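Journal club prep — side note

Before the paper discussion, L.F. wants everyone to see what a predicted structure for a comparable chain looks like in C-alpha cell form. Sequence:
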Amino acid sequence: MSSTSAGILLFSRKPHLQLLLAHPGGPYWWNKDEGAWTIPKGEIEKNEPPLKAAKREFEEELGFIPEGDFLELNTITQKGGKTVHAWAVEYQIPDDFIFTPNYFEIEWPPDSGKTEEFPEIDRIEYFGPFEARKKINPAQRPFINRLITICSK
C-alpha cells in the first residue's frame, strides 16, 4: 500500500538561490549520495491537512517551523508509489543553529536479533539548484524546477 507524505523545501536567496536538503540516516543510506537526498518530509496523519503535516514533520526533524509565505509546489509520486506534497518557504536559518537529529531503532544487522539506533536524518545542507538536482531523489526534482520557475517570476 502506498503512503502519502508532506514536506517543505526551505530556500534562501542570499547570496544566491540555495536549497536545504536532508540526507536520510541509517545503514541503508551510508554510501549513497547523488539521488539520495530529500526534502524534509513525513507521513500525513489521517484527516490531517497536508501543509499542517509538512510543518509538523519539519519541526520534528529540524526542531523549528520556518516562518514565511508557503509556496505550493504540488505533488509528485516516487518510484515506490509514495505521493509527496510539498511547499517551499524562503527562510534564513540563524548562524547559531545546531542540527540535532531524531533517532529510530531497527534490527541491525538484519536477522541478527540485535537492535541499533540510527538518525532519521544524518545531515542537512544547502545546495545551489544545479547541485541540488543531482543530490535529490530523482522523483523530487520537479519540486526544484517548480521553485525556480516561481522565483524567476
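L.F.'s comment for the group: The chain has a mean pLDDT of 95. Keep this in mind when we get to the figures.
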